[in-house]
Specification:
By secondary structure, the chain is of the alpha/beta class. It has 22 helices and 22 strands. α7 packs across α8, α10 crosses α11 and α13 runs parallel beside α15.
């Protein structure tokens, strides 16, 4: 049953009391008016009686006589029309009528109990009457019963006088009505205003309570559930879902480049972006799904499923929708997300355990190469143990000397002579085994260590390379994260100053993803480094977006053909030659050198030499070598 709020109930009660009070005021004032009119009539009749006593000193003889004598007729004629008196009757001391100027006496009794009452009590009293148009009486008149007493105090009889009080009544009623209105207004302000103030304060308190209650379970920015709201809603809905043979799958999502969006476009744009992401999630998912924001760019989602096998399909579709560009304040903003999920159909572990598993999957997705999502499986914990081990090695690598720089020689294609080397970072585990860069570099980027590691690599490589002949260049790979920090130019300058190496011997290799991430920001840093004399090459060309605009915009010096095209010469020679020849011709037309990496056979060498490739790099010639082996190689030359 619906119950009115207490504040509304109090206001309604106050309004009802005010209405009753107003009616009461008007009723009392009406009674006061009647009493005032009657009292006024008594005063007037008292004056009239005094006049009668003075004008007719022999009134006693008139009262005694029962016959209509000339004296009585003269008495009537003299009193008729005086003041507002419209008629009168005179009674003897027994209350019997002895004289009347009222022509129609059919309806009047010869004996009047009211007159007899006034005579016996020797007190005047009045009756207020309302006339009717058809009986000849005025709208308002008063019957006053007044005793007639002689000078020596003897009661002679009484008189009933009909006094027209229509005009007086109107004046009294108007005055009293005005007073009643004023009183009602005063009472209204005295009672209703405090009641409304109480209602307003109660409404504010109720709204504040409602808002606090909402904020206890919702994110104030996006309107999605917060942590408390998610767990409460999950517990409430899960029971009914399980009774239908369905279950919730937990999906966690974070925005990889959200910090960059905030920094580049401002926090307001970042807030709008978060709201848009929530809107897309709620539009895509059904009403039974639970969407919550746990952190700045962390989202927890519970999706009801009938079949756990469709979870991967749902996640892939979800990623596609969420990563579509957002148009905010005239800008098109793209985001990249990681997704970790846990199917909850296998065993009842509780929502906390399922979230922990989804967090493991999310972490795995964040450090994986290529895939942006991961669904929890039992082997993932072993994989994460290895990742945690690698993270520990990365954090202590510089202090404990776990990093080692290897160098893979690059040969001049025509003379087969050493023309340069590419620096390749290696990481040793606790047993001295080398860990693949494909495994630890993405992790170093994700945990924010790549900038400091990259700084150390540049410094060490330049210090080593300065000892080699001037004709040998050294190539160093740069990560997109190194450009985002904005420190790259400074520590390159420091390394050049420390090593005193010629900048023309330095070649930085960047992938096409660096240019796509933020062309203006990257272009500015590349131009500064190029102004120092440092050369730039595009690594893994052909595997990314391969935009000619980037080749023209950044004024690169070299293209490095991705090893996948070189390897294709062994499986699909004709098609591989078409692609390789196109890339080499394009580069030469743009006055760029071409390096082919991943050469593993004499056949590769022959084809690439015929196509006009400038430099060779691969296992067919040299594997990556430690610095000491490079020293020996150069010495042997």
């Amino acid at each position: 049953m619906y119950r009115l709020p207490s504040s509304v109930f109090m206001v309604l009660v106050t309004v009802l009391l005010m209405i009753c009070l107003a009616f009461g005021v008007f009723w009392l004032n009406a009674r006061a008016v009647e009493k005032a009119i009657a009292q006024d009539a008594i005063v007037r009749i008292t004056s009239w009686v005094e006049y009668v006593s003075t004008a007719f000193p022999k009134i006693e003889s008139i009262l005694v006589s029962k016959e209509l004598s000339d004296a009585k007729l003269d008495f009537i004629h003299q009193l008729q029309g005086r003041g507002n008196i419209i008629g009168f009757r005179v009674f003897d001391e027994s209350g019997n009528q002895v004289l009347s100027d009222i022509e129609n006496t059919v309806t009047l009794q010869e004996h009047s109990q009211e007159a007899y009452r006034a005579i016996r009590s020797q007190e005047a009293y009045a009756q207020l009457n309302h006339g009717q148009p058809d009986n000849g009486y005025p709208k308002l008149y008063v019957e006053v019963f007044f005793p007639l007493i002689s000078e020596n105090g003897k009661t002679l009889g009484g008189v009933e006088v009909y006094l027209d009080q229509s005009e007086t009544g109107s004046i009294y009623r108007q005055a009293i009505t005005d007073v009643s209105i004023y009183i009602s207004l005063i009472l209204t302000f005295a009672f209703l205003v405090p009641a409304l103030a109480f209602y307003w304060r109660s409404q504010q308190a109720r709204d504040s309570h409602k808002k606090l209650s909402y904020l206890s379970y919702h994110d104030p920015l996006t309107g999605a559930y917060n942590r408390e709201g998610f767990f409460g809603e999950y517990a409430w809905r899960e029971k009914s879902l399980l009774s239908e043979g369905r279950f919730y799958s937990i999906v966690l999502m974070d925005i990889r480049n959200f910090k960059y969006v905030n920094k580049e476009y401002g926090q307001q744009t970042g807030d709008i972006l978060l709201t848009r992401v929530i809107n897309r999630l709620t539009e895509y998912l059904d009403s039974e799904s639970i969407v919550a924001r746990f952190g700045a760019d962390k989202f927890h989602i519970a999706i009801p499923l009938d079949d756990h096998r469709v979870l991967q399909e749902v996640i892939v579709d979800l990623i596609h929708r969420i990563q579509m560009p957002y148009h905010i304040n005239g800008r098109s903003i793209s985001i990249n997300i990681n997704v970790g999920a846990c199917n909850c159909h296998e065993e009842a572990q509780g929502v906390d355990i399922n979230i922990q598993r989804a967090e493991l999957a999310l972490f795995s997705a964040g450090v994986s190469v290529g895939e942006s999502y991961c669904i929890y499986h039992h082997d993932i914990e072993d994989q994460l143990l290895r990742r945690r081990m690698i993270e520990r090695l990365l954090r202590t690598g510089q202090e404990q000397g776990r990093f080692e720089i290897y160098y893979q020689p690059v040969l001049d294609a025509r003379q087969r002579s050493l023309t340069g080397v590419e620096a390749l970072l290696r990481l040793k585990d606790d047993h001295g085994n080398l860990i693949s860069p494909a495994e630890f570099i993405p992790m170093a980027e994700s945990i924010g260590l790549i900038d400091s590691i990259g700084k150390w690599v540049i410094k060490e490589v330049l210090l080593k390379a300065v000892s080699w002949p001037e004709s040998i260049f050294v190539a160093i790979n740069l990560s997109v994260v190194q450009f985002q920090t904005g420190h790259l130019v400074d520590y390159v300058r420091d390394a050049l100053a420390t090593s005193s190496i010629s900048p023309e011997r330095i070649e930085f290799e960047v992938t096409e993803s660096v240019m796509i991430d933020n062309s203006d920001h990257v272009k500015e840093q590349i131009y500064v480094l190029q102004s120092l004399g440092i050369r730039f090459s595009v690594d893994d060309f052909g595997t990314g977006f391969s935009s000619l605009n980037y080749l023209w915009m950044f004024q690169f010096n070299k293209l490095k053909i991705d090893r996948s095209f070189v390897s294709a010469l062994s499986s699909d020679k004709e098609k591989a030659i078409q692609i390789l020849s196109t890339i080499i011709l394009l580069a030469h037309r743009l006055k760029l050198q071409v390096t082919a990496e991943g050469i593993e056979s004499e056949h590769h060498v022959e084809v690439l030499e015929d196509l006009g490739c400038d430099q060779f790099q691969g296992y067919w010639f040299y594997h990556p070598l430690p610095a000491s082996k490079v020293d020996q190689l150069i010495y042997d030359l």
